[in-house]
Amino acid sequence: MSQEIRNLEPKALWNNFVNLNAVPRPSKKEGRVVEFIKSFGESLGLEVFEDKIHNVIIRKPATAGMENRKPIVLQGHLDMVHQKNADTVFDFANQGIEMYVDGDWVRAKGTTLGADNGLGVAAIMSVLESTTIAHPAIEALFTVDEETGMTGAMHLKGGLLQGEILLNLDTEEDDEIDIGCAGGIDVTAVAEYDEEETPDHSVGYTITVKGLKGGHSGIDIHKGLGNANKIMNRVLYDGFDNFGLQISEIHGGSLRNAIPRESVAKVAIASVYDEAFVFDMQQIVSEIKNELKTTEPNLEIVFEKLKKAPSKVMPPMAQYYFVRSMATAANGVHRMSADFDNLVETSNNIAKVAVGKGKLSVQCLTRSSVESAKFDLANDLRSAFELMGCEVEISGSYPGWTPNPDSTILATLVPIYEKLNREKPKVVACHAGLECGILGANYPDMDMISFGPTIRGAHSPDERASIVSSQKFWKFLVEILENIPVK
Length: 487
Known about the structure:
This protein is 30% helix and 28% strand. The chain is an alpha+beta fold. The protein has two domains: 2-182 and 400-482, 3-Layer(aba) Sandwich (Aminopeptidase); 185-398, Alpha-Beta Plaits (2-Layer Sandwich). It is elongated. It catalyses: Hydrolysis of dipeptides, preferentially hydrophobic dipeptides including prolyl amino acids. Keywords: Cobalt, Hydrolase, Metal-binding, Metalloprotease, Protease, Zinc.
């Protein structure tokens, strides 16, 4: 299928994307892709530099006649989110992404595609290798670990870059020009409990929540999608209150920045309640599926009776506080922006829940375009979990990117977009985390903007990139490079 992708237009963009996607590149394990991108730059005879945190900078001089234009930074991140369907057999550590064409979309077989931010990286590579595109002096900045901590951007030293304008190629709607984004912070609650023997005359069940769409916990948080961890807790809450259900294990979600699609729990109940439990659960499941029938038509909540009940369970009192803390903890949109239409200001994603063998952990990613509101919601979550006896760590805070509607480069991009597309672009701020705000801390005078091709379902196995949109994005980028303002 790779050849099918390579034949797409623009060929330079898609060929570089195929080559990039052949290299495993999970967050925090970018060693191979760092070497790949360095070798790429060196093969072109360009100046290549790797900093201490493993960001890569490749410098390309201005083309003839463009020496008097402002130097620019083209920026994208090398890592990608690794998610796969439960029934997909795939080794992200050693396999390249398997892609195919589906109408106007490029998709992956049962995994994330890596278009976020692989298409941005591939576009930068295509500019670096081009001998025909007019452009000013370029610094290509390839950052690491954007998806799980913004580590590359956080640790990029001031003074390394000489560019006056930064073009971030990590936006996922081709009719938008981003001038601002949300910041984020991790909230992690952990606790230990003394497991107890499962009572005699108990029966066991495996409960599975699956079939959810998942998605990006910033871009998709407003869509009313189901969160597998909250759905699972709703089932456990009812089972505990009405039938004394006891939890043995829970494994829900995987990554902080992905809305969890699946959760699996093993539980025990007294055999005397077995028939009534099954009947009641059918009603609860019916209610949940009816509530989410529009946004999550493929939701399944499956109960499978075990041959033998689990041997150990969480004590009733610990479970009482756990399910109530989970029910209390905010998830989804917390507040809409008062300053920008249809923009989520503050949200939380209850991303990963793990319970078993006397330990529990709940991991959240809280986002906000208002710094004080970000910490306020994080403290709300802290309170919910500390009241049940958890130790709560608030960490990994990164700032948002404050919009600058008077940006010089914005004034350049808008008329170019209008000329190419015969319509005005949407100038927006987004609820996702972009690296611009972080980079701006060490480069406060750098004028920044973000744009990119249309990508759907990022951070989920439904991730797909529009072919037509990628062509539109490429033409826009080339035109921008040819029209960068003079110094």
